[in-house]
């Protein structure tokens, strides 16, 4: 597993299995947050790397696909911490409904493991330490990105892929609603992160400079 420090508080862990798989470690004031957990075989190593950085507080998921959630149970087998995902993602993760566009249900985790990301009275996702979650549906209904305000980095899960420094659409065969996913990309225009960190591709610097083109080209 490749360990890459992206910014003062964020480390990206990468491995290759057909394509690149990623998880992120975020060092906050109160401890370390694991964002996504890769495939099952990645879980143990992700936890080891996280524990080198401090007390591990929680797992935050960008969405429920198996390549982001597989490491959850291996991590929980060693460390009892809460696991959060957007509430819209729970029925798919718990195998009650198939992900939109797929035929079969997948019981990725037993009921009762995943908790909904906390929200305020207006229903907006609550800030978690230095991370601001934003709902970015399309790739999956409850897809979320996490913006690190101090480091100005957007941990974007499967909102995009990239090629030679250019933003590209998420992988078509795994994306529930491509038009909605492309529109959700406009979060980059709003936040102007210095770096967009991408699960299955190279990260993209100054993505806001190309976001209008990305949205027009893929609308
Ligand atoms: Zn995905
Ligand atoms: Zn993925």
From TrEMBL:
Highest rank taxon of the organism: Bacteria
InterPro entries: Metallo-B-lactamas, NDM-1-like, RibonucZ/Hydroxyglut_hydro
Protein name: MBL fold metallo-hydrolase
Ranges where the Metallo-beta-lactamase domain occurs: 20-200
Coiled-coil segments on the chain, per record: none
Matching Pfam families: Lactamase_B (PF00753)
SMART domains cross-referenced by the UniProt entry: Lactamase_B
Gene3D superfamilies reported in the protein's UniProt record: Ribonuclease Z/Hydroxyacylglutathione hydrolase-like
Catalytic reaction(s) noted: 3',5'-cyclic UMP + H2O = UMP + H(+); 3',5'-cyclic CMP + H2O = CMP + H(+)
